[in-house]
UniProtKB/TrEMBL annotation:
GO MF annotation terms: ATP binding; protein kinase activity; receptor serine/threonine kinase binding
Species the sequence originates in: Microthlaspi erraticum
Cell division found in the keyword field: no
Protein name per UniProt: Protein kinase domain-containing protein
Domain Protein kinase stretches: 269-518
Record's keyword terms, sorted: ATP-binding, Glycoprotein, Leucine-rich repeat, Membrane, Nucleotide-binding, Repeat, Signal, Transmembrane, Transmembrane helix
Bilayer-spanning residue ranges: 218-241
InterPro entries, per database record: Kinase-like_dom_sf, LRR_dom_sf, Plant_LRR-RLKs, Prot_kinase_dom, Ser-Thr/Tyr_kinase_cat_dom
Amino acid sequence: MASSLFFFFFLLTSHSLHFLPLSVLSATVVEDLANLTPPPDFSNTITANCLRDPLLRYCNNTSSSPMDIIEIFRSTIVASHLCNESKNPNCVESFPVIRIHSRPKTAALYLSFDFFWKYCPLTVVEIEIVNNSLNTGFPMNVLSCAQVRTLDLSFNQFSGFVPVQNLSGLPNLTRLNLSYNRFSEEHISDSDFFKRFNASSFIQSGVLPNAKRYKMKVLVLLILFPIMVILLCFCLGWLCLKRPDYLPRTCRRSHKFTSAILEAATDEFSDQKLVSKSNGVDIFRGTLKDGTEAKIEVYTEKVSKEKRTAFAEECEAVFKLRHKNLVRVLGWCNSRNMRALVTEWTNGENVENWLNSSSASSWRRRLRVVMGVVEGIFYLSEEWPEITFDLSTSSVLLSDGDQEPLISQFRIGDGNNSSTNIFNFGMFLLEMITNLRHDEEQEDSERRYLEYIRVHYPDNLGRVIDEKMKIEDRTVEKVKQAITLGLTCTDKPPLKQPSLTQIYDMVTSLYESSSRHH
Ligand SMILES: *[C@@H]1O[C@H](CO)[C@@H](O)[C@H](O)[C@H]1NC(C)=O
Ligand SMILES: *[C@@H]1O[C@H](CO)[C@@H](O)[C@H](O)[C@H]1NC(C)=O
Ligand SMILES: *[C@@H]1O[C@H](CO)[C@@H](O)[C@H](O)[C@H]1NC(C)=O
Ligand SMILES: *[C@@H]1O[C@H](CO)[C@@H](O)[C@H](O)[C@H]1NC(C)=O
Ligand SMILES: *[C@@H]1O[C@H](CO)[C@@H](O)[C@H](O)[C@H]1NC(C)=O
Ligand SMILES: *[C@@H]1O[C@H](CO)[C@@H](O)[C@H](O)[C@H]1NC(C)=O
Ligand SMILES: *[C@@H]1O[C@H](CO)[C@@H](O)[C@H](O)[C@H]1NC(C)=O
Ligand SMILES: *[C@@H]1O[C@H](CO)[C@@H](O)[C@H](O)[C@H]1NC(C)=O
């Protein structure tokens, strides 16, 4: 260290300066600096120097405290280091450039010598502290070199706000480079400052609003947003058209089914979900989105537009029907490619199966089923006389609990034919008594079925009345009346057909008399 002191002594006394023999600043240098004490006549040297060179800023404070003498001493050593580190030619004290590139540790050390920066040599006009991974806030120290013309802090990780006011206060600063740092975005209030330096001073510095990001935002707003809106509308529209069951309950009509909904409910009308298939109607068992089990009657026949309108009207009408003997209609589908009626799925035996059970052995019980059916028909004919319903022992169900008969199949769009309805009821009544039914597959089977009954009735009652039904003598007469009613209902051409009111009255009286006997 003695030689270095000598050099410094020399450096400070003469102006033909020499180098310090230390080119690398290290932790030991910092420690050394802390241990160094100035030579006894150092203050005289400074005074002499200051008289010669008023550019030495600390000179104005030599008269103050002895502490300053030590700081000044150390500062001259740092200056000497820095001068050589920055590769100034003829590293004299009055060096113009501080340039530390790609040397993170060294840069951080130099920046930490506050005293040096506070009395930054007035000769320094260019400061470049580049690519040093410095991750502090803006290095305020360097601002003490108010005379700088070039300040390059690019390629570091400086963060926080840039002291725009202080930088504006540097009158000779012509080249500023803050590029590639992590400064916070500055509100460009000091527009004069940003006029002095163009965007190339702030490339990816964080100071200026990122042009790319701004463009992205504009892009998002101008293009993506409308696209989103259109997509949203498209989705909503699609939902409305195809799957309204996904819309909130309040913005849809729950009785309107689309073919997509029914497809989803029946696994695309799979065979497993197919319950029955008969002339023009495929019946599926499906599960709606809310878990409701439904019977879906798909009308396979292609029809005209007018018929489709009529179909919708009838559906609307049956949808409003509420009766204990009518299956509940949940809604319908009436689109160009599908017509279907959706009713509640009823768990229950159909009458055809029930007739073979022991509980069907009583005439009164069978009559009770007929009575329920008649009540249903009567209600239907009053509410919507044009409707046709499918009445057979296989399509009438007995509800699980109270064994209430349920007319579960309508023939929507068949057109008005009350005579058909009465004929159908007659057939149903006869099936209830005979426990025999015609084979729908075979041609002319209805006629032959009726022929069979007419041949054996009334002489051969045993072949007409179901043998499983136990009939007491006093009720035979009533059963006969019922058969007669069935035969008149099925009269063809329908000359002797009774009216629905007459049927209702007769069945009621039969039922009441059977109850009395009971
Ligand atoms: C100054 O730096 C140069 C390299 O730029 C080096 O060769 C020389 O030894 C240094 N001088 C002193 C006195 O540190
Ligand atoms: C030191 O102070 C004197 C006046 O006292 C002034 O003229 C001179 O410019 C100052 N020097 C520096 C470096 O500030
Ligand atoms: C001299 O030192 C005092 C206190 O240490 C300080 O307030 C003053 O600004 C210094 N003067 C110069 C010219 O640096
Ligand atoms: C920054 O320094 C690293 C090594 O610390 C070096 O690999 C890289 O090339 C330098 N980048 C620039 C732009 O100087
Ligand atoms: C700026 O440069 C001019 C001319 O070189 C000089 O006179 C002036 O003192 C400088 N300003 C500062 C603050 O150093
Ligand atoms: C920077 O400017 C502010 C006021 O704008 C001032 O208070 C502060 O001392 C300045 N800092 C330096 C290092 O010049
Ligand atoms: C920005 O300013 C520098 C000088 O500071 C100049 O060389 C450069 O051409 C300018 N660039 C633009 C895009 O104006
Ligand atoms: C700042 O540094 C970057 C990277 O080296 C460079 O592209 C840019 O031109 C510089 N800007 C100025 C004003 O020197």
